[in-house]
Amino acid sequence: MKRIGLTGDEAIAYAAKQCDVDVVSAYPITPQTIIVEKYSEYVANGEVDTEFVNVESEHSALSACIGASLTGARVFTATASQGLALMHELLYIASSLRCPIVMGIANRALSAPLNIHGDHSDMMGSRDCGWIQIFAENAQEAYDWTIQAFRLSEDPEVLLPSSINIDGFIISHSMEGVEVLEDEAVRAFLPPRSDARAIDPNRPLTIGPVALPDYYFEFKRQQAEVMKKVPPVLERVCREFGKISGRRYGKFQSYGMEDARTAIICMGSAAGTARHVAKALRGKGEKVGVVKLWLYRPFPADELVRELEGLKSVVVMDRAISFGAPLGPLCSDLIGAIYGKLPKLKVMNAIYGLGGRDITAKEIEGIYREGLRMAKAKAPMVRVKYVGVRE
Amino acid sequence: MSTLRELTKEELLAPGHRMCAGCPVPTLVRMTLKALRGPTVIVNATGCLEVATSIYPYTAWRLPWVHVAFENAAAVASGIEAGFKALMRKGRWDQKVDVIALGGDGGTFDIGLQALSGALERGHDFLYICYDNEAYMNTGIQRSGSTTFGAATTTSPPGAKIPGKREWKKDLIGIAVAHDIPYAATASVAFWKDCIAKVRKGIEVDGPAVIHAITPCPRGWRHEPSESIKVARLAVQTRFFPLYEVENGKYRITLPVPNPLPVEEFLKTQGRFRHLFKPENRWMIEAIQRWVDKNYERLVKLSQL
Amino acid sequence: MSAVEKRLGWRKVPPGGAISEAGSSALYKTGTWRSFRPVIDEAKCTKCLICWIYCPDMAVRRINDGVEIDYEYCKGCGICATECPVKAIRMEEE
């Protein structure tokens, strides 16, 4: 194990390099571009044995990835924002055809107005596409999760695509010290993909047929069930990865939750700020905690309920708006998870950070103070607050 | 291969598919599959052929077949080619697999053109075949970038003010050739020998190949189902759809038509052109004839270069 | 009833909807679509195979050195009758 300086994008590219990817097909888009640039360098220098398909759009990128994945190849791609939106119809097809593609996403706002900075709108627009969706807080996590994602996706029980999400610019372009594994250690953890290929001249399959009302529902019902197989496999993969790296991952990471009255639930880089503020507040005797969600889809509903038992209130931080919906997307998921199980929990939904707007420690402290105030309320409630926007 | 008897009897497309009676697209597919040289995978863009041959749990395909979406057959084919290439290099697969993409004119001329251009530019070793029935037949005969000038479709209906489609057909082969690919050709289901030979050439060249095949549509063109092949033949005999190929940039008319029939002979077989025969619309037939003449002259000149 | 035609529940349908029974459409008999049937006049037939190559439905089958119509699949389009160079195929109303 050695420690090298990498940005979030570079960390994902470096991980993909060590994963002996057979085919990469990608298209440049800020703030993901460094991933495809770095990977192109590895190809040009002969550091990887990969077919790099330099496509003319993200739509074709994911289309080519699906084709390659069906041959039994290990496949990687990366995108962001409008690119992810352009892939939208293929996102559903990739998961439906059970292609274990891994995609790095440097999360970025969606147009209009055009904005290249980080928020979670792009990824939230694809939350129902049947992908495993993982959020990394920093470059180290991005590196570690990329390697774990291949194992998870390619597991014969799973065979679903995964996305590793990092906050655009905040993580994608920030240099950090990242502990990387030896190539051999990654190879041992992740042998070449070996499951039966879908496209096989010796065993001709018809892939992607038409299913009319007499069959379509059964396929979708099955797909819903496959998502349930992800958590146990994820646990196994994380345990094994912990052994080789010393870094233990799971569905989420908690801080101060053993005695917290209120907690913040968030994803991505905001977790670091939240932890920093929680630490300071706990030093002053305030019982506050943080739950940083790594696994967003499939949503770890039951585990989160167990984690939040004992809390008086919770603040769910959404870096996206679900237009016309009563709550932000993450908060909607949480309310669905706790319904009937934590009837007394007061919930605040803090919508923050759109288009790369900074979320400050002071704002987070304000959020905690409000959470603590809500904790004293008698009746349960759900409140939405936009944090950091000019009135 | 010079006689029908020499062609393989094996049918890699099974009966029981649900293409309309008289649709010549399955005929084109049969000819294509009789030209294979080894393990092959078919990529099918969304469209009539895709829908009618793969209604779960029934498939008409007896070889690997993949459908992903409408506009991306060429991109999916790129990925499959790249996948097998990588696996062969790494010793995890040992057979050359030919990749053939099939798309209609909507999936090729219009929504799929970008993906096709990208795949041709990148030089993947695959064959793209466009079966051209000159409209979006799968959704009910809407005009496409391939629909002939003057034709009636459900989105270019001949009305009191506008007499049918106002725009001309795109030159698909011209677009393909502009990518400097090793092989491009037109084909007609009526000329089986020419068609099969071109498919085989398209498979054999190292790099991308494009075949643009005319496949009449009894429903959309409004002719008898029994006349599909006849209409596809008239398209060639009137020089409406000349048969030619372009090998490494060199044009060659593979089936010269020294004494063409007037284009009217082709147009009058089809209800979609019926309104052109009204006295006030005759100018459109003349315009189509001029377009046909100009195109054929262009091809003659190009083949003399 | 063949395995293909069984209406499977969601636990049993194949992942991704992939169909493994290559050519299973043969179980779907399109001959019922037909309102006219092609009949070959063996005396006139020259066994040129033109009807075979143009048939869109694999319904002209090659037997020995000649052909026969497979009425299980023939949709009655009449392409074979139109294309027959010696007019050895006539279309008869069903």
Largest sheet of chain C: 2 strands, antiparallel
Shape, per Cα inertia axes of chain C = elongated
- Rg over alpha carbons of chain C: 17 Å
> In total, how many beta strands of chain B?
8
Q: Largest inter-chain interface? A: A-B, 45 and 49 residues
Q: Low-confidence segments of chain C, ≥5 residues, pLDDT <50? A: none
Radius of gyration from the alpha-carbon trace of chain B, in angstroms? 19 Å
The portion of residues forming beta strands of chain B comes to: 5-15%
Roughly what percent helix of chain C?
A: 10-25%
Q: Total number of helical segments of chain B? A: 11
Look at the structure and give the mean pLDDT of chain C: 95
Walk across the major sheet of chain C and give the strand order: 1-4
Structural class of the helices, strands and pairings of chain B?
alpha/beta
- The portion of residues forming beta strands of chain C comes to 15-25%
N-to-C span of chain B: 29 Å
* SSE string of chain B: HEHEHEHHEHEHEHHEEHH
Question: Can you walk me through this structure?
Answer:
- The complex is a heterotrimer of chains A (391), B (305) and C (94).
- With 391 residues, chain A is of the alpha/beta class.
- Chain A has helices spanning 8-18, 33-44, 58-70, 81-86, 88-96, 121-124, 139-154, 183-189, 216-228, 230-245, 270-283, 301-308, 329-338, 361-375; strands spanning 2-6, 23-26, 51-54, 75-79, 102-107, 132-135, 162-167, 176-180, 206-207, 252-255, 262-266, 288-293, 295-297, 313-318, 346-352, 382-387.
- In chain A, helix 1 (8-18) runs parallel beside helix 7 (139-154).
- The longest helix of chain A has 16 residues, at 139-154.
- In chain B, helix 3 packs parallel to helix 5.
- Chain B is an alpha/beta fold.
- Chain B is built from eleven helices and eight strands.
- In chain C, strand 2 and strand 3 form a beta hairpin.
- The longest helix of chain C has 5 residues, at 50-54.
- Chains A and B meet through strand 3, helix 3, helix 5 and strand 9 of A and strand 1, strand 2, helix 3 and helix 5 of B.
- Strand 9 of chain A pairs parallel with strand 2 of chain B.
